[in-house]
Batch of 3 targets.
Target 1
Amino acid sequence: MITLAELRKDYARGSLDEASVDPNPIRQFDIWFQQALDAKLPEPNTMTLATADADGRPSARILLIKGVDERGFVFYTNYESRKGQDLAANPQASLLFYWIELERQVRVEGIVEKTSEQQSDAYFASRPLGSRIGAWASEQSRVIPSRELLEAREKAFAAQFGENPKRPPHWGGYRLVPATIEFWQGRPSRLHDRILYTRDANNHWRLSRLSP
């Protein structure tokens, strides 16, 4: 049998250099994200969000990106969840996009802030009805005695709100405002290409190459 230590793959699908990337990392992210869409990758909008609590204990989970622009990367969740509690105590976080079929990663680090209530309201209204009811029914990250209780809460909130549930006050958006964005392209012999964008004090992006 093959051991874990023997599992390996040599990457050879592409390359990345300072001359070919866009000087703006948000535009470069848009280019790569569109290429992931064009390649019909399964759920290219998935990402890992890593947070840490007030004592520095880290946690990570997979969720979906819901918006990217010059202000940052937007996602939505329950403010009272573990990630929400972490961000309330320590607003520094990181995101990781991994498109294995293209042998690419994007790492984003920065400070997280809440989106406006208007933006959260607008996104919440665009969600399927079941997801909107679910945001009320789920006390995310809390211990519950059974699945049956969750389903009973769902039915109760569905009966209460009907077809037009409002956004729960404990649910909404976050925006990660990037301080650094790194683009990683797999290369043969583990000599990968890593291009790092760092935001300076004047809000300009400085580009550098990292050793793999």
Target 2
Amino acid sequence: IDTQIISEIRKQRIGKAKTPVYIEFLWIEKDRRRDLDNIYSGKKYILDALQTAGVIPNDSQKYVIGLVDMVAFDKANPRVEVTICEE
């Protein structure tokens, strides 16, 4: 999974963030079947990939000061949209 996420980060040309940051996750699901805790569990893989890709130096609280989760629905195009907000 990490390699897919890192590939997308590079495709989007996301550069090194000025830390500390907070990160917003918009989880766009196809329906309401999955529990929120199962949806949000993907956050770890995204944070690790951001670190591996060099966008953030580490995912510790020194560099990532907040995480925000929101859920929306799109049956035709489920996805995750990640917004990195520099302080």
Target 3
Amino acid sequence: YVKFDDESKREKMSILNANRQQECETVFDYGVSTEERMKLGIPEQSAYFELFEGDTSSVTAHLALLFHLRKDFDRRATYMKRLPNNKFNEVIEVIIGMEIS
């Protein structure tokens, strides 16, 4: 049995959170441009990670929409398949809205 003090616990949790954040693929891993980011309605990278930390369905939805904007429909489909039904339907509505405007 090992007992850590509070500072050690914070340090270990920080390392775990950093690793988890690095493992989570986001639009920033694909060089999202400012124009694309604005079309997607997402903030700059630092604020993005704070807002969507742990929200994998929103992050995946953003990836699907990014690839839709780029007309990479195979990649869009890859991310769409990972979405839960409710988020999938939201993304479809956004895509339809993009096509209309």
